[in-house]
Amino acid sequence: MMTLQQLRTDIAAMIETTPEHIGDSDNLMDLGLDSLRAMNLAMQWGEAGIPLDFTDIAEAPTLADLWARLTDRQAE
Amino acid sequence: MTVTPTNPLTAAQSGLWYAQRLDPDNPIFNTGQYLDIKGPLDVAAFTRAADQASAEAEALALRFAETADGPVQWIDKEFAPRLQLVDLAAERDGEVRALAAIRAAMATPTNPLRDPLARQTLYRLSATRHIWAQQVHHLAIDGYAMVLLTSRVAELYRLGRDGNAGGGRPLAPLGDLWAADASYLASADHAADGRWWREKMSGTDDIVGMAAGRAHSAHGFHRFEASVPEDTRTALLRLAKVAGCGWPDVLTALVGAYAARFTGTGDIVIGVPHMGRMGGHMGRAAARVVAMVMNVLPVAIAPDEQADISAFVAQVASHIGAARQHGDYRSEQLRRDLGLIGGNRRLYGPLVNVQPYDRPPVFVGLDVALHVTGTGPVEDISFTFRGDCLNSLSIEVDANPDLYTQAAVTAHGERLAAFLAAASHAKRLSEVPTATPAEAEAEIIGFNRTAHAVPETTLAALIEQQMARTPDAPALRFGDTTLSYAALDRRSAALAATLRARGAGPGQLVAVALPRSLDLVVALVAIMRSGAAYLPLDPAYPAARIDTILGQAQPVAVLASADPHGLYGACLLAPPQWPAEGAAPAPAVAAMPPPAAPDDPAYVIFTSGSTGAPKGVVICHQAIVNRLLWMADQYGIIARDRILQKTPATFDVSVWEFFLPLITGALLVVAPPDAHRDPAAIAALIRTQGITTLHFVPSMLAAFLEAPQAAGLRLSRVFVSGEALGADLRDRFHQLLHAELHNLYGPTEAAVDVSYWPAGPDDRSQPVPIGFPVWNTGLYILDAQLRPVPPGVVGNLYLGGVQLARGYLGRPDLTAERFIASPFAEGERLYLTGDLASRRADGAVVFLGRADHQVKLRGLRIELGEIEAVIAGSGLVRQQVVLAVHERLVAYVVPDTGYDEAGLRRALAAQLPDYMVPAAIVGLPALPVTANGKLDRKALPAPHFASHGGATPATASEQRLARLFAEVLNRDGAVSASDDFFALGGDSLAAVRLMLRINAEWGHDPGLAALFEHPDVAGLAACIDAGTDEPRDLGLAPVIPLTRKPQAAGEDGLAPLFLIHPAGGIAWGYRTLARLLQPRPVYGVQAPALDLAAPAPESIAALAADYARRIVATAGNRPVHLGGWSVGGLIAQAVAVELQAHGHAVGLVALLDSYPADCWRAEPEPTEAQALRALLAIAGEDPESHPELESRAQVVGYLRAGQSALGNLPPAVLDGVVRVVFANNKLVRGHLHQRFDGPLTHIRAGLDHKGRPRLVASAWAPYAASLDCLEVPFLHPQLTGAAASARIAPLLAARMAAFENRLARKAA
Fold first, then answer.
1. ipTM, interface predicted TM-score of the complex
2. Element (H or E) spanning B781, and its range?
3. Using CB atoms, which residue from A29, A40, A43 is nearest to B278?
4. pTM for the complete prediction?
5. Is B357 touching A (CB cutoff 8 A)?
6. C or N: which end of chain B has fewer Cβ atoms within 10 Å?
7. First CA to last CA distance, chain A
8. Among B592, B595, B474, which residue's Cα sits nearest to residue B528?
9. B1276 is annotated as an active-site residue
């Protein structure tokens, strides 16, 4: 089961920063998560069975929004 | 969100729309893929899923129409592609059939005005094997959208099998995207993005690809596929970590570095596809919508090969990251912004497309493989990577077959794979070779297998052997005098003895400064026989140069007829002092030095040196012997040959002219001094002396072929060398002469020539290669690290082998610079030519220019640095640079105190041969430099060669504008401030080009109307400077002035003349006629429908009423004259009727070869093609010479591809012209003429209309009070040209004046 902290850590690794730098409502694109990095992240998650894809990141590019989508789906 | 019934195309679609309409038969806009599905597919569930996804993906159901406001689109649910089932299970070759059907569908062009954009088919091969093919026109989809769509089908299939049909996350509607697109276009971000890109790309040189040619997508592409091995993938991921960027950016950077090695400049602009699915204005709306969103971002790659590779990668990644921030701005728009339209101008070269998301979708319980069948147009070459890099990564190289052969594409694929493997492990790019090991071996060994046995001897010995073989044969001829080999033997032996007495011998030099003559040849042979090397001097050189050379060379004697500068002193040995034939040698034989050895110098020729002083190239006997024996053998030179000697002895081409006949027993025919510059004299020599063999520098050959005396000459062979031989010159040669043509190449430093190419009549090479190495010679094309480059790649040309010079006389430093130790063979040397070259697949070498500042003008080798050194040495200037501009030398100088141009000219003439003295000297306050401190050549003003009078352009704008005038009109001479654009030969279409150039330079232009009003440099420059904020005027207004500063109508008693446009709607063509009618004010009336926003006219009568209103608005209540050519005359008559009905006085009504509508109703309606041919005529092309152009798209495409000004018009305007052409054709047939109560003046094109009896002036009789019938001897299309206008203008002027006289008498 994915946790909020794990989500934060994965994103931080992808944009070469530390998890503390990512605020819940920061726009991840402003922090350097461009489309190819997002794609990589989505694929990484896809392989781990985490139900978030690229369009989720594109449509909801904050940690809080992504976490909301993830918790919805994990609840299903 | 409700979707509006119709919507304009998005910015992303527009470019594709235009390209497809331009090339309607091109199927390459079909994109597609198929999935090979293995396992028990639930066909019913799959069908439901595929149909459901297809219904959600609204773009698949798009339809299109063209309207006056441009193309529009709407969604038509009926067009949504439902899954077609094709059962091939019963067929033995089901798979083959399925794939053939897929290919056939992909190869069928889609007409977006008619056809559905998408289709999908499921081929059943067996219960456990299916192929699902999808095909969607690029207007509706991009690569990412295809993944979205396929994944959605997979999701629906899974849910459907679980009993949750229709669940999951549906695809997003198109309407949101359309709204986002419109909002972005209107936003400040769009403007800001545009500014960012324009700034980023400004100052970029012409952008090129990896292969020469026009990057215009063909109907198909060549493909190479491979997978990237694991160790490369791992290394790429590691490099990404080190560089701190994503692995896709690593790949992009490395592929960019690979591609940059193929441009010749070491840098390149690649296109990086941008998904546009995240961030920006569009991203959120686009995230889940099937649509064409993808953009291409131009990314400049200029690798520092010595830098740390991870630093290079990181820098490219950050560059790409910044570009993505502005990635919504369409590249098509940027191209227009930058004026990169038409011709070969482009925004980027190869595409580098990394698609980590492109993996087969997961269908539960099934094994699925993805095959991409098409991704859209391939303009140049695309490198596509699919996969996640961790588990798999594939390379696809797709390339335009017009630019790359399949072999070239395969080679790129294999080479790139090797490059990535090496680069991902390397510290620096410089460690990574471009060529594969096999290519490197071919370059070093395979192409250079030239070993050939040559006797170890000297040139002197070969000549002596020949003299002994054929003593009685004629050896040389000069005018009426012929010398036999025996006589040459005697005279040269005597002189050789005298020279030896003066100390001549091996290793010594004897200078020769004689004009072309028998004495000159005797002197050269004598020096050879003395054992010394000869040093040719041009007696016309300035004293300072001769002094420098003599100082370096220290000759033991100078054979010259006089000593004009007093420099030879006791060394002078003039022909009268030479011993008589057979005179006994004076000194004792024992004192004779031994004859020269093969490795002793044979001659020393001085060439221009970049350091400011000429340098002497020392060539030894074995080198020139190899060269001469190769030539004799290669071309079968025999005693019957007669070889013309016309090259000055100071140029090394003369070496074979002198000695090839003397070692083969042929006759050496010495041309009179200065004959080499006179084509007629050369032709006469060839005829009278029966010359079989001679040499030209290509530029001289061109001049020779222009001489009428040259035509039809018959020779055995002609050699050219010294500059690049143009393919057109080769072809012209074979049209005019009957002779073999051979292209030779070589620097003075390698015994005249080192390579050869037979440029025969069947040779279609373009460029003409310099060819293959001669005996015992190697040609090596190497990169900066001395590694061989693969075929097709530009590198530095190095030479190796026996013909290399010993070095530069007395300059070991310069010798060491250019003659280096060969990395390929122990103890051998390579000579760095400074020439750029590439290797063709067949091994022939192609010369591509200089790597340094050496230039060749008319075959003469010039180091610009030498001229610059002389200028610097004058002490008159602070800075200087010399360039060759249009085959002339121009010196740009920054004057120091005390500078005067005449003084500088004197200094130059005193030290340089006249061909090295700049033709123009331009003083500047400072030399312009680019941002990185290099000389900004583009910013240097054009030189003013000999002035043609008129004031010199004074202001900066005038100078820039004068330069543009010269550029647009291809003028070499100066343009003065008062020069008139049209008087200099500008026509209306050149005027359009001028406006485009002005717009490119200033960012705005004053419009064509301003040019017509102010055609002089000063006047137009003032308009440009004044009118920064005025809207751009393309000269397409309904009424434009055609004469300069028209007087207010009627002010001076001259009623204005209004000339109505012909079929194309544009009246610029009357410009010449209008000028001839000055000072009468003349206006052009143009079709308002040229503006696509204006409504289309309903009838000629409505058109005439509209024009009449506009004419009255311009002329006031003064009388007017009317005229028109072709359809224009027909409309003019209708306008005259209309004006008359309103009581407006009409004078002349001139119909230039116009015929009433009745004549046309009887004629068949013109085909679309015929109507379109009118466009070609408007563009100044001869429509009859292009029968192949049939469709609108072809004609428009042809115009765009060419340099015609019409083709350079903005697309909307060209569309306007097309629209008017079509509308006029229809309207004319529907028009019913009324009677004009006055005279019609009809001017018939007398040479035309044979066999068309209806087209006669009398057809107008029912529609006029009287007819005034005139005729001029021209064809219909020629009537507005200069010659016809000169005939017509006086006819019109007289009639208009007569009308005004009548009016005046009436008033009196």
1. 0.82
2. strand B777-782
3. A29
4. 0.63
5. yes
6. C
7. 13
8. B595
9. yes
